[in-house]
Amino acid sequence: MSTTENRPGIVHEGGGLSLLDLRELPWEPHVGIAGGRQKTLSRSPAGWSQVQVTWIPPGLTAGDRPERHFHRTVHERGLVLFGDLPMREYLSEDDVTGRPVVFREGFFMDRRPGSVHGIDPHLTSQAGFMMLEWRSGPGTFLWEDGADLETTVLEASAEASGGPLAPAGSPPWVVADSGNLTLLDTRAMPWEPLAGIPGASVKPLTRHADGWTDTVILFIPPLPASPAAEPHRHLHRTVHEHGYVLGGELPMREYASVADDIGVRVRFHEHCYMDRAPGSVHGLDTTRGSVDGFTFLEWRDGPYTYLSEPGIERETTVLPAARLGD
């Protein structure tokens, strides 16, 4: 259901929420990769692509593109949705040989400023590669206007040195943790119980310097419909939330404003991308159940948005809600 004109891919738009169905969004030709395609999911107020999905076809080679570079100030994160991409990762600017690593489906990348990397010049993607990626600033794509201000291109050796990218004793799901890069195999990570929702669990992927979790994979088990349950409605005052549904569904109620205490039913389902601005009023729709459960990749720019999180009253306002008729 869309609250605006029927544009492709829009599940719901309004009240500070944009919910897009990735499958329905059209692909655009990729500017910098021959045969590549991309979907822009969110733009910054300045207009640069903040969240995007990139498709790289099988057989990609480095060609005449730089093999080694780093970004000076921009932080990049992403989750591989499909396929494989052979990369070279370098410990520092002085490391000219680097270490090979193949990015695979389920890998989560946390690439901090200064991380030196490039496509492996000798290997190619066998199945193609699709990645959901978000970044803190522009200039990280080598074909992008302003890339020369943000990205430093370095010379690279033709041969890789090999060697581990994760420190000795790292958990088996840590693929790399060096050179300002952390690469996790999320499929191998264990689930941790999540307080506040019976049966729910979480995989923390990154933490803010202050200690709160800013990127997680969340699982909510199948929920029965509870029409007699008290409706719940709340908003987050300053925190911006983004997320992508990896599997299942979750019935929600979305509200146009604080004055709207009835809202509309919106079902979050697999392949949906969420962009929730501060002040967006929302809550679980208890009149409908979740048959398949719900698995959600979420990232946020502040704490105290989870109802079970200590200190939630600092950020989240709980509001009364009217019952929604059948």
Would you give an account of this structure?
- With 326 residues, the chain is an all-beta fold.
- The protein has 2 domains: 31-187, Jelly Rolls (Sandwich), CATH 2.60.120.10; 190-319, Jelly Rolls.
- The chain has 1 helix and 24 strands.
- The strands form 4 sheets. Strands 1, 2, 15, 16, 17, 19, 20, 21, 22 and 23 form a 10-stranded antiparallel beta sheet that branches. Strands 3, 4, 5, 7, 8, 9, 10, 11, 13 and 14 form a 10-stranded antiparallel beta sheet that branches. A two-stranded antiparallel ribbon has the order 6-12.
- Strand 19 and strand 20 (264-269) form a beta hairpin.
- The longest helix has 4 residues, at 147-150.
- The chain is globular and about 65 Å long.
- Mean pLDDT is 92; it is low at 1-5.
Q: What is the name of the CATH class of the largest domain? A: Mainly Beta
Portion of residues in beta strands equals 35-45%
Task: Please identify which CATH superfamily of the largest domain we are dealing with.
Answer: Jelly Rolls
Give the terminus-to-terminus CA distance.
16 Å
Helix content: under 10%
